[in-house]
Each structure stands twice: as structure tokens, then as C-alpha cells.
Specification:
This is Metal ABC transporter ATP-binding protein. Residues 13-228 form the ABC transporter domain. Belongs to the ABC transporter superfamily. This protein is α/β, with parallel strands linked by helices and 292 residues long. It has helices at 3-9, 51-59, 94-98, 106-115, 131-143, 161-178, 219-232, and strands at residues 13-22, 25-35, 40-44, 66-71, 77-80, 149-153, 181-185, 191-193, 198-202, 206-210, 233-235, 242-244, 250-252, 257-258. The longest helix has 18 residues, at 161-178. The model is unreliable at 266-292 (pLDDT under 50). It binds adenosine-5'-triphosphate.
């Protein structure tokens, strides 16, 4: 088999029925997804639904307590964390931020900062960066490692709408130029990067998965957000047939409550085709559908 065709079919990472248990409680269970080279996978789901936990299993920071995670031997990860454990009372320049955990040459630092459009901020204090500039600095830090898999935990937090579009364009161009796989955690339940190949919706398990809708093509969407937004963002509109209650029980569409999900519920692994197809339709940004 040629290297190229092997690369196309061998995922960089694959989670198979993976779960993490802490203090007698399953944080996530039955998580199945993979990321291949050049592929963009976006995890969505409410707060506490297991997005970060699943991403941490993918990169090996957390070991699964059940199921398994297969990783391509010796692949390199670039990780943009949701939070950075930094003492913000201490002055810190962008240059120093780049080398907090890895050693990089000056040229590697300059090239990475230039690649994300903030080469001029190399000596700026991190505390003074705007939300968008800070996210770019974190992105530069991750791509400096020349990763095969780039993991981005909420890359657009603290960034306004036009900054969000610009960041998503940047992430897509990094994928196009380097061919790395991207695993992204989205802060939004319904709006994802249009270039996403697969959306995985988590709620303690995989509730549903699919491609983002081509809403971005609709004239109404373009009128609302402009043609540029349409190229960058897409709506993932989906409806679940059950709700996970805070105490771990499950409320079904008919109002009944059980300890576990029914076999016919929107679990990916209970469906014959393996996928619970989302209902894709034209929805405006911010118009939510009920999330289970
Ligand atoms: N080490 C741990 N011990 C116990 N519980 C944990 C641990 N780490 C995470 N959790 C819990 O696991 C659940 C999933 O957390 P996780 O951070 O994966 O969710 P998330 O979907 O990324 O959330 P958010 O959108 O708020 O970032 C949460 O209820 C969290 O409190």
C-alpha cells in the first residue's frame, strides 16, 4: 500500500467505546470517533458533557477506564488548552509564552507568530493582548511543534464575531497548508466552522454526529451574516430524543424517567447505521433547538 493511501485510511487517533470514570461516576462513556490527516472534527455539547475529557483521551493525557484509544505511533500533538495555568501577576512576553513548555529557536518562534499574523507582537506583554491576539498566540505555540494533530479547546473564546470568522479561516488555512488533522472543541452548540468534516455531539456519550448543514449557502443566511460568514460558519441543527438529568437519570421524549437510555434513543451505537443523523435545516445563528 502506498504511504499516501495508508495515510488517508489510517486515522491519527481513534477512540473506541472509550470512557472515563472518576469517583464512581462516568464522566463520559462509549465515545467513538477518529481523526485522520487533513480532517477537521468538532466536538460540541453542553458544559460538562465531556468534550475536554474526550479530547484529553485522544491525546493521551487521560487514559480510558473502558474501551480503547489507538494512536498512530509517534505522532505529534499541538494542544491549545481552554485555560493556561500561568501566574498572570508576573510579566510575560509573547516570546516567553512560546517557550514556556518547549524550547524553540528564535526562527521557529518568528515563523509561528508570522503564520498566525502576530509577528509584530513578539515582545508584547501577554496581559495586554486582545482576546483574538491571545488565541493566536496560543495557536502559534501549538503549531510551532509542527503537529500531526492540532487540538483546539474552545479556540474562539473571548473573541468577537468577526474575530471568530478570521480565526476559523486561519485554522482552515493551517490545515490546508500542513495537512494536519484538527480536533476542535466548540463553545457553541449550533454554530461550527463550515470546514468541519464531522461534528460529534456529546452529552456524557455521543448523542449524534454528522456534517454541518450547508446553511451557509442559503440566501437568508448570507443576508444576515454576509457572504464571508457563510463561507466560514455553518449551523449544526439537531434534536435529541432524551435528556440526561443532573442525577444521571434519563428523561425520555414521552416524559418517562429511567436510570439508563432506551435502546432506541439517540445513541450512535444503538442505531443500525451507526449514526443518528442530525436534522439539518436552515436556522439562524442563536435560534436554538432543544438540546438533550
Ligand atoms: N478529574 C476529575 N474528577 C472528577 N470529575 C471531573 C474531573 N474532570 C472533569 N470532571 C467532570 O467531568 C465532566 C466533564 O467535564 P469536561 O471538562 O470534559 O466537560 P466539557 O464538555 O469540556 O465542559 P465545558 O464546556 O464546561 O468546558 C464535568 O462534570 C466535570 O466536572
Amino acid at each position: 500500500m502506498s504511504k499516501l493511501s495508508r495515510d488517508l485510511i489510517t486515522p491519527l487517533v481513534r477512540l473506541e467505546g472509550a470512557g472515563v470514570k472518576r469517583g464512581g461516576r462516568w464522566l463520559v462513556r462509549g465515545v467513538d470517533f477518529s481523526v485522520s490527516k487533513g480532517e477537521i472534527v468538532t466536538l460540541i455539547g453542553p458544559n460538562g458533557s465531556g468534550k475536554s475529557t474526550s479530547a484529553k483521551m485522544a491525546i493521551g493525557v487521560l487514559q480510558p477506564d473502558e474501551g480503547r484509544v489507538r494512536r498512530e505511533a509517534s505522532f505529534r500533538v499541538g494542544y491549545v488548552p481552554q485555560k493556561l495555568a500561568v501566574d498572570w501577576t508576573m510579566p510575560l512576553t509573547v516570546r516567553r509564552l512560546m517557550t514556556l513548555t518547549t524550547s524553540l529557536t528564535r526562527q521557529e518562534i518568528v515563523l509561528s507568530l508570522d503564520a498566525v499574523g502576530i509577528g509584530h507582537l513578539i515582545d508584547a506583554e501577554v496581559q495586554n493582548l486582545s482576546g483574538g491576539e491571545f488565541q493566536r498566540a496560543l495557536l502559534a505555540r501549538a503549531i510551532a511543534r509542527k503537529p500531526d494533530l492540532l487540538v483546539l479547546d474552545e479556540p474562539v473564546q473571548g473573541v468577537d464575531f468577526s474575530g471568530e470568522i478570521a480565526l476559523y479561516e486561519l485554522i482552515t488555512s493551517i490545515r490546508d497548508k500542513t495537512g494536519c488533522g484538527i480536533l476542535m472543541i466548540s463553545h457553541d452548540l449550533h454554530v461550527v466552522m463550515a470546514a468541519t468534516d464531522t461534528v460529534i455531539c456529546l452529552n456524557g456519550h455521543v448523542c449524534c454526529r454528522g456534517t454541518p448543514a450547508a446553511v451557509s449557502q442559503s440566501p437568508e443566511y448570507m443576508r444576515l451574516f454576509g457572504a464571508k460568514a457563510g463561507q466560514t460558519l455553518a449551523i449544526y441543527n439537531h434534536q435529541h430524543d432524551h435528556t440526561h438529568l443532573p442525577d444521571g437519570r434519563v428523561q425520555h421524549a414521552d416524559g418517562s424517567i429511567t436510570d439508563h437510555c432506551h435502546p432506541g434513543d439517540g445513541h450512535h451505537h444503538d442505531h443500525h447505521d451507526g449514526h443518528h443523523r442530525p436534522n439539518l435545516s436552515e436556522t439562524r445563528r442563536g435560534e436554538g433547538v432543544g438540546h438533550a
